Amino acid sequence: MSMIVRHNQHAQQVPYDDASLRRLKDHVVEINVNKLKDTKRQIESCFNIIKSIKSKFSTAADTEFDGLILSLNADRFSLFELETRIWTSDDNFKGSFNRLFRFVTCSVVYALGNIYVFGGGRNENNANPQVNTWSRCSLTERRIFSAPMKDVDCVQHLSACYDGKKYIYIVGGQNIKEKDLKGVYRFDVETEQFERYGELSSRLSNASTHIDSYSNSIIIVGGDYKHCVKTFNVLTRITDVLLMFDNIGLDSTTDCPYLTDELHNLIYFDNSFGIMFIGGQGRNYLYSIQHDQWTLIQDNDQVRDRADLGACLIRD
Fold first, then answer.
1. What domains, with CATH codes, occur in the chain?
2. 99 by DSSP, 3-state: which?
3. pLDDT at res. 49
4. Which of 80, 48, 56 is nearest to 143 (CA)?
């Protein structure tokens, strides 16, 4: 194409003489449409093969779970669709967690077609349970994988958030002796390896954490930080105070009476749907950002208390 463009420019700058123009002949380019379509199908099939090789990862749009909220309930899932206000259970996954989920309120994360749960696993028949376990549930394969969290001190009440690319950050938590910690780890979703990445300025457990890609920081709300919002910069690895509640004041509300001590049970959708507080039967609320108002959701939730159960939004 560039050769044709250059020739056209040259022809305009140096026009053909009459003798050369007489020697030029018109040409017709015929396109074999059937062959072109066959070539297109072959190219598309190549991309399908590449995608099947990388079956460990996918997008939410590849599954029927896109846009749903997943909430853990003992050793199974509950799924909530905001538009219909309906909760359903999905018990059709191959394999088994072989453990109950406790103390994973803030450590359930969705990433690349998988649900990750970090720590908090207890077998009720085991007097000395090993709780330092992580699990991955593949939504496309409908299979569950579990393994020990090697070289990670926190085992429960830890917080996890996904950076949208490659890493899930593990923040704070408690060790086996129920002592709060201040370590920050990151988990590589490709290699499935943990790395101790830094430390917070103070100990923390059971906080709500979110990645802010603009500031390259983890936003930390609640947990032991009751009077402030802190940040952990993933580039500088420095903890800072984003704002103090005492300075700005918090509006008390009777619209959602369960909110005060349970900031970690919030799921953010977007500006149109708002924020959902997951509390359980008769305790699920939706906050409208536009109208600054909490509304009780009229749903069919049969689980009495979801306040301590982990949940996440399935969306890329």
1. 56-248 (2.120.10.80)
2. coil
3. 46
4. 56
**Strands 100-101 and 207-212, sheet pairing:** unpaired
Contact 173, 184 (CB under 8 A): no
Is 206 exposed, middle or buried (CB count within 10 Å of its CB: 0-12, 13-18, 19+)? buried
- Give CA–CA dist 117/38, Å, rounded: 45
DSSP 311: E
Compute φ and ψ for 81, nearest 5 degrees. -110, 120
Decide if 299 contacts 276 (C-beta within 8 A). Answer: no
Low-confidence ranges of the chain (pLDDT < 50): 49-55, 127-128, 249-250
User: Could you please report the per-residue DSSP string of 3-69?
Assistant: HHHHHHHHHHHS---HHHHHH---------HHHHHHHHHHHHHHHHHHHHHTTT---GGGSTTTT-E
Distance CA 144, CA 152 (A): 21
Tokens 């490709």 -> residue: 190
DSSP assignment of 224-250 equals TEEEEEEEEETTT--EEEEEEHHHH--
26's tokens: 């018109």
pLDDT of residue 98: 65
- pLDDT at residue 234, as a whole number: 94
Q: How far apart are CA 183 and CA 172, in angstroms?
A: 5
Q: Cα–Cα distance between 109 and 295 in angstroms, integer?
A: 26
Question: Which pLDDT value is given to residue 52?
Answer: 41
pLDDT digits (tens, 9 = 90+) for 87-110: 988 766 655 566 667 788 889 999
Q: Report the alpha-carbon distance of residue 74 to residue 129 in Å, rounded.
A: 16
The alpha carbon of 130 is separated from its chain's Cα centroid by a whole number of angstroms, namely: 26
What is the separation, in whole angstroms, between the first and last Cα of the chain?
38
